[in-house]
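Side project, low priority. Logging it here so it doesn't get lost.
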Amino acid sequence: MPEPHAPAPREAFQRYTWAQLEGDTPGSYTLGTTLLADRDAARARGERFAFRIQPMRGYGTGISDLPKYLTAASTRPECNAPQPVCTWSTQPGSPESGTYVPNWNHPYMLARMQALLAQVAQALGDTSDMAWLDVGLYGQYGEWALASSQVNYGDVAVVPPGVVPATDATKRAIARMHFETFPQLQQVMFIPHANLDTLRYAFFEQTTTVLPVGLRWDCLGKSGYMDQWLHRPADWALIKDRWQLAPWIAEFCPFGTGSADPSAATAAQQVRDFHVGMVGNANLNSTWPAFSPAEQQALAAAGREAGYRLAATQASVTQPTPGTLRLTLTVDNIGHAPVYEPWVLQGQVRDSGGQVLGTQVLLNTAQVRNIITGRAAQVDASWTLPAAAPAGNYALHLAWVRSPALAAAVTHPLRWNMAAAEPDGSIRLATLRRN
């Protein structure tokens, strides 16, 4: 959130038009000065990178966001008669004020999408330190929605021959090429109900991605936005618990101070109601000081309450014998989403200088992920203290350890949501004495 003195962001998200990534001719990619430069800059700031590719942006701009070889000016035989066009304008008589729309079902368009994603994956190389990937390349802003009032496929006087709305098969193909190109990366799908078939495929049918596909919501704060699902109970049942498996990532609908709808208060409540895991700070049209105290409080709550907040309760430490230790502990999640990434809870015996002399895994990644509000984890563990430790006092810490670890540049501690948390995020639970 843009609150003064807030911690630095841990993720950096960027959107790119297709034309920003590929030049006038097929294969003339410009990734080094765009996507790769942004990824490297994010790493340098200690942030994990995420992105989406947009095949088009707003309506009525008169600008095509595709590479020139796919636009109306294309001389490619694939985009000219007798083949269907690759792009069309909603106002062919006034193209400067029309909306340029890709011909989604065109085999050449789909082939070039696949080639673009393959090149991006090759250029990025190791993606293990990236945060997520939006499944894009369809709809306005790549958000998998087209307003029928702006893009009317029924207007035969405007729509070229061979151009029809994207079929379910085409939408599945666009999603599948993301999954197949980045199988190891966390991916998220946009949630318009019109994409029910593709969401069903992404969530329940495809087996390509290592991680479950999550949800993407770019209109947080808009009252009634989720009615498209809530008013269809059978369909809503398919995705309402998806948050327990994969993250729900959100951005605000554009609004500023004094806005009744969208609003900060609605956004904060939606974070709670729908278990949003992360909120981006884009689309706020006012500076932080311009928001009222109530709006600031709601915006801060949306950022604070999204995701997980872990707390240790009901802890007990005993030494049944001089060389052994027993720990009982309850771990609660007082946030609204689980821990999706691979963290384990370690008990760590540290000497007076902070060096870790011995560890014990108390909760594995599956057990940590299972902790949600109302479903705490219970720990009852015993282990032998390091035999080589000399007599003296030692500290028992509870620390979160990511396994596998991220690259050092983007590694940040997972902190307990407790006032007693140490600078490294751990908590000091007890002092142990070895005679």
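Brief comment: The CA atoms of residues 1 and 281 lie 6 Å apart.
Revisit when time allows.
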